[in-house]
């Protein structure tokens, strides 16, 4: 399995002066492996070799990298849902469809907050995947980081909303309705989720 994970969601929710709805051209930095994020990694052990000599309480860096990749991947997926449901809710006209979107969206946000918190517990390491040759470096996000990388900021930092003339506030972002569904599809497909032998 080869997986790409865009970790820019991490800084998107911590940078307080940029909003993808107001600044669609702004590139939010990656939290892992800048500038490209996590590339060509597995988030599930493929075989016994990926587990290696790991024992409970004494995991190899390779197995940790697999787990950390999974944590950031889950947070990436849930962040997409956190934005997708409010974006789509603004366009629906049927009350039952609106009820569905408004019922699922907050759950996605809770999942995002949980997985973002778990991903922030990654310990610093660099690992080279023995199958893909891809390198990944996880930083210690718990100490000595700028605000845009701090692990303990699991609530969205306030940012400009609707217009820069209004005070900043804490929001889900992006929530622009234009291209919301296609944007979600592009992000989902951009993960290149396939096995190496395919």
What spatial form do the alpha-carbon principal axes imply?
Answer: globular
What is the N-to-C succession of helices and strands? EHEHHHEEH
Strand content: 5-15%
How would you state the average pLDDT, rounded?
A: 90
Unreliable residue stretches:
193-198
Approximately how much helix is present in the residues?
A: 25-40%
Secondary-structure-based class equals: mainly alpha
Can you list the strand order of the major beta sheet?
1-2
Straight-line N-to-C gap: 9 Å
Quaternary state reads: single chain
Q: Radius of gyration in whole Å, from Cα? A: 18 Å
- The number of E-state strands comes to 4
Largest sheet: 2 strands, antiparallel
Describe the structure.
It contains 5 helices and 4 strands, in the order βαβαααββα. The chain is mainly alpha-helical and 198 residues long. A two-stranded antiparallel sheet has the order 1-2. The termini are close together.
Question: SSE layout and pairings?
Answer:
Elements: E1 3-5, H1 9-12, E2 38-41, H2 48-51, H3 61-89, H4 95-119, E3 125-128, E4 135-138, H5 180-189
Antiparallel strand pairs: 1-2, 3-4
Question: Which terms summarize this structure?
Answer:
198 residues, mainly alpha, two-stranded antiparallel ribbon, 36% helix, disordered C terminus
